[in-house]
Amino acid sequence: MSPTRPSSQHIVRFEEMLPLLERSKMEGLARFLHNFVKLKSRKKLLPLHPMLGLALRSLLPNAPSETVAVTSLALCYAGVREGSAWQELAKTIASGPHSFSPRALAELAWSFSEVRYAHQGVFATLLRKMDGVKQMANDQERSVFCWASGNLGFNCSQIFGPPTANVDPQLAQSLFQRLSALGQQQLGRIRRIHSYASSSVQQALPPDVCAELIRKADQEGLWQNSTVVGGSRQVVMNNIRTSATATFNLPHHEEDELLYGIRSWAAQLLGLPTDFVEPLQIARYSCGQEYKRHFDWRSANFNGIWIFGQRVATILVYLKTLPAGAGGETEFNQLNLQVTPVEGTAAIWPNASQPNIPS
């Protein structure tokens, strides 16, 4: 028997992709690919990935480097995660005479990282090409490229040097002044618990907000085994951290007024821009679970430093009150200090050293 052929009205002409391969029309290309995926599944077309590969084999070799980069982004956004399309992109990057800009290289590195395409030859080529144009790369392009490469184990230190884990002295000084001011206020709701170590904000969040955060995490099924930064990646380390964690990623914050409000409150409390505040996380500890002694600052080998920078401070809000003797305290080992969870109370501390800046 011969294979079943799709009817003519269901055949997609890949020449239609050509006018879509422009940065201003990337959304159109992504929609085109996404609809083709759906069309393939509904009309039982020939396998999608080989067809995309054949199309890109003819389109990409003569395409501008910016087009190659935009195609990789569109494949990601359309949900094309594997197959010959990515192989053709890799061949084009390796063999094409294109002069890639830092932006295009950053977009390509991000795309291959997103689909976990860790072929040695692809990133060897991307690293070599970025080394040739690194003087033209801005901070964002450099950060995205190094972060994406590092996600798959390719080190960019030989090109840009190691990322800095240090905190700007002026920022650190401002942070310590802010914490000092919190501790000196006589408002009845703020209690200083240690000089320059941390402050405790009473009723930082009202009970209904605490309950709503837990409800959101439960309802959306966000709970996962807690991770610890190990080397350059997030890994589960059951001998160090045994809790569960729910993370509200940035789209949650953009769409949810409550999450955005809490993030804005944290920024105002410390006098920092809102985009300095990480996505909110909730940690849930069952009986016997723990997070052993650790530091909240990031070492220079943490790959996320390239994108997020150093974690300058921590605000820990307790969402439930534990009865006396139940355990669950947050312990600051070097200060011989324990903080007992009380619903709505926030413990705040810096993760940077206080700089010695002359007045």
Automatic annotation (TrEMBL):
Q: Which domain of life is it from?
A: Eukaryota
According to the entry, every stretch annotated as the Prolyl 4-hydroxylase alpha subunit domain falls at 196-357
Q: Which InterPro entries match?
A: P4HA-like (IPR045054), Pro_4_hyd_alph (IPR006620), Pro_4_hyd_alph_FE2OG_OXY (IPR044862)
Cofactor(s) listed = L-ascorbate
Q: What Gene3D superfamilies does the entry give?
A: q2cbj1_9rhob like domain (2.60.120.620)
Asked whether the keyword Metal-binding is assigned, the reply is: yes
Keyword terms: Dioxygenase, Iron, Metal-binding, Oxidoreductase
What Pfam families does UniProt report for this protein, alphabetically? 2OG-FeII_Oxy_3
Q: Which PANTHER family does this chain map to?
A: PROLYL 4-HYDROXYLASE ALPHA SUBUNIT, TRANSMEMBRANE PROLYL 4-HYDROXYLASE
Protein name in UniProt: Prolyl 4-hydroxylase alpha subunit domain-containing protein
